[in-house]
Amino acid sequence: MNRRDNQVDMLYLPDYMANWPWPRAINPHYEEVSAASNAWFRSFKAFTPQSQLAFDKWEICRYTHDEWPEHLRTGCDLMNLFFVIDEYTDVEPAPVVREMVDVVIDALNNPDRPRPEGEILLGKVAQEFWQLGIKTATASSQCHMVESLTAYLDSVVQQAADRDNDTLRTIDSYLHNRRQNIGARPSFAPMELDLDLPDHVFYHPVILELSVYITDLIILGNASCGLLDIASYNKEQAIGDDRHNILTIAMRQFDIDFLDAMDWVTNYHAEVEMKFLDGLKRVPSWGPKIDRQMKQYLYGLANWPRCNDSWNFESGRYFGSKGREIQKTRRVPLLPKVTSYHNTSLRRENVVVPLIDHLHYHAIQVQ
Cα–chain-centroid distance for residue 188? Predict the structure, then answer.
């Protein structure tokens, strides 16, 4: 029997980053570089004007924190690529998603080959992203970017198959799958564009372990590329898209209510924080040159959860125009469920990108 009433009309968002040692900071080049990246992306006309307006309010370039302007630009362009892939594939069955991601993979591996006439625009977006990014990337970082993006794209197909088959995952299987399709690993790649980390260092068990912990913190708090968790639960449950949310999975697996599930996720988040901090003490030394580069990379990793948390509230993705207020009060009204707002019959350039500030109004109109 649940210890609390199942009827929840107000969500409380715990300040799970309160004790994280890395403070918020924004790149000094953010305004200039994000404007250039967003202008580049809008040139593709990937969305209708209404959906592009909603997309713009997400301010996805806040998701990046790379030091140099050229690397920040690669990070911003990557976020634009992620989100258009997310929106285009979310409404498609797995075989179509497979075709879409194969176009992107081909563009990444052949950035100088002309794209076929009539191809879905994802190919051109991916190609131009990587044509620019590769100019300032070391050879090792190029390999890591393409490898991690390919793994992410393959996992997007698996997520589509889960939707097609109405697959309900356990927490363990969810985390295993989500570590790929949240897009964290390729999101880490811009942090090493000026580094030359050999594979025996980059793929060292301790470094991989630390990257998994950071990925899990992003998953638990909110991430990189689509269906997210604590912050996004409100949006997803409103439009009936919460199957891939760890709160929903915890409620089902443990037979608990929403508030108990929130407690479980918050406690698990704290456990993962401690594992990351302890893991930093076990990083080996590879000599002064590599150690300096690894210190820079680990600093970037450690900043990602703070970056992610700040973006949740500073963008319009999950809380619309009330993000800053909710960041202070930690309380947000539960959005009414909406069954007709998200028209999944619309595809590609006509796909609907929901505007959070309109969800509550639309729900009232159709009740």
Answer: 11
| Buried/exposed code over 9-23 (b: 16+ C-beta within 10 A; e: otherwise) | eebebbebbeebeee
Contact in structure between 361 and 42 (CB atoms under 8 Å): no
The three state secondary structure string of 127-155 is HHHHHHHHHHCCHHHHHHHHHHHHHHHHH
DSSP state letter for 197? -
Q: Max CA-CA distance within the chain?
A: 65
pLDDT in tens, 311-346: 878 876 667 777 788 888 888 776 555 444 455 555
Closest CA to 47 of 107, 91, 106: 91
Q: Provide the phi-psi class of 344: left if phi over 0, else alpha when psi is between -120 and 50, else beta.
A: alpha
Angstrom CA distances, 77 to 24, 164, 187, 257, stand at 22, 30, 11, 39
Q: Is 11 strand, coil or helix?
A: strand
Asked if residues 29 and 287 have their Cβ atoms less than 8 Å apart, the reply is no
pLDDT per residue over 202-254, tens digit each? 999 999 999 999 999 998 885 322 333 444 444 444 444 445 678 888 888 99
At residue 231, the 3 state secondary structure works out as coil
Q: Which residues fall within 8 angstroms of residue 149, CB to CB, at 6 or more apart? A: 104, 105, 108, 186, 189
Record the tokens describing residue 317, joined without a space: 């993705």
d(CA 128, CA 170): 38
The model carries a pTM of: 0.84
DSSP secondary structure string for all residues of 100-134: HHHHHHHHHH-TTSPPPTT--THHHHHHHHHHHHG
Rounded to 10°, the helix 246-254/258-280 angle is 110
* Residue at 249: amino acid letter: I
